[in-house]
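Q: Got a minute? One more chain.
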Amino acid sequence: MSILELRKEFSSRIDLRQEATDIIEGTDSTPRYGAPVLIRKPDLTQPCPCTININEEDREDSNPSREPNTNCPICGGLGFRYTETLALARIGEIEYQVRKSEEPYTPIGIVDEKLTVLYFKYNTDVDENCEVFEIDMTEDGKIRPLVDGVGRIRSAIKRTIRWDVVWARNVKGENGRIEYIKAFCRKIF
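A: Always. Here it is, folded:
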């Protein structure tokens, strides 16, 4: 091998998008580090029917304040319909020092907080309005359903951990290409 060939081999650039995808999804020679998650994103253009309660007798709106029903089976108290997407995410917890310029949503007096960082592939649709749920899997890699005490399936997917996305940022490489998405999340349950 000549010196020019050796220099060319070592000067090749790393494709950060491909490396992040390989870490999250795995390859033939490396394990998958991404955990299956469910991303719930509200569609702010479609209000839930629970916010518009028409009284059949008077034909008047019995909910003029448009407050959502907290027990609504459609929106779960959110007030909007939502879409759910299955994705893979690399999960890591950090102790995060909150400063005024980095997180404007922190209440006054909160100095540090434990946040979870989720790393997504470059084409995942995640923003500050989303909720992320970790999915319970069986030993053979299938999604475990939520079953009640009698043995009836209550939901097709059993959710174990819920996070609210505090903020999500696209990590960009050269020429503005999105390499991966980094989301800071607050653990709810």
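A: DSSP finds two helices and ten strands in the chain.
Q: Perfect, thanks.
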